[in-house]
Amino acid sequence: MAKTQTTFFCKNCGASSAKWVGKCPGCGEWNTFVEEVIVKDKPDFKNTWKKESGARTAKPVLLEDVEKGNEQRIPVQDQELARVLGGGLVPGSVVLIGGEPGIGKSTLLLQVALQFSNKRVLYISGEESETQIKMRADRIPFTNNSCYLFTETSTQKIGKAFNDLDPDIVIVDSIQTLQSDHIDSTAGSISQIKETAGDMIKFAKETGTPVFLIGHITKDGTLAGPKLLEHMVDTVLQFEGDRHHVYRILRSTKNRFGSTNEIGIYEMQPGGLREVSNPSEILISQRDQALSGVAISATLEGMRPLLIETQALVSAAVYGTPQRNSNGYDAKRLNMLLAILEKKCGLRMGMHDVFVNIAGGLRVEDPGIDLSIVAAIVSSYENVPIDNKICFVGEVGLSGEIRAVSRIEQRISEAGKLGFKTVYLSKFNKLPENKSGLTIVEVSKLDELLSFLFG
Ligand code: TYD
Ligand code: MG
Which residue puts its alpha carbon closest to atom 1 of ligand 1? Predict the structure, then answer.
């Protein structure tokens, strides 16, 4: 009979202990230890790979002697994904993609699998049946004759498939469904995730095969499983967006091979995810005439300039406490802007309900859109529309001063490309010279902006 052994694991950092402890000695968190059963005498994950990357040497080498540039990237057809990965897929890298259920993780990776038309891709699914995946593949307009499906969850069997098939790229949907015979606890438990992710990483590193892992997220939006999982992999991507909107954003939160500043934007369509290469055009709604309560701002998502539409509705408050509601913009920051408008510009915001929205279901954290939010609020308050060829860029400080923002030239040039005529920005944003052909209006204080716009 198998010898049963139990160990306690920390849910947060994955540290283990023979006894239960209240405070994790690894990360210092309280009440994070859970008991899991481990069986030691079962077969281990096979590691007799046909392919050897030779990337690992058995003895220490001098840093100087390590050859540069042997990290040839595998080109990725999906330009949005390629950008987020830092310019292609690094051999032997492990990429973890997290996101809410139904956001499109499986769709994205199946699409990626089908786009590698000249590569042998192994798509392992512990979540869906072969027919379900086939049905999804039929909706996607790409085909790959060497894409294999394997609906299996045991890493021992998966290891065998790796040996038989010798895949060029592996996709695992999802890491929480994998199970190692080595460990007796249920799939998705900390020890299983630690073990199975370790197996997949071992395969990736020893053979130089890139592996994508799909990860579930918990209620509070973090990746389910031990934090350790994020430390183990090379790249962590977050697939996010509002399920009721069609736009999805792929963001990297960790990348050993590139910057974490890049984002990819997709549109969910009946035929899969479409790359959105020019997001500004779709985020600004088409309107014939200027409406009150709408202002456009140029923000940055990663390194990309992006024009967004900020909308506000200000109406007389019916209840004693006015309502403030914000979609896509920090609610605390909105309260701050309203307090500044009340105190510095004499607008009676305390008597009004204020609703703010960023069009397209986007969430923007860049303070550079403050100026546009203020313009939209005052436009709705005064019921005076703002010319739809004006773009606003600037951060608002507590005393109503308008502060400079980063990468102003890029923002201005994006506005220029989309046919804007005027940009309002901070006086302190020193522009070397204005080559854009746009009219630049420099403002240093909020009341200056208001008198320019509304007289
Ligand atoms: P899915 O990839 O299953 O999400 P996840 O793996 O993150 O849970 O995507 C689910 C949603 O995507 C589903 O509600 C339907 C939608 N969808 C489309 O709109 N078009 C498509 O072509 C596909 C395949 C899915
Ligand atoms: Mg899925």
Answer: 104
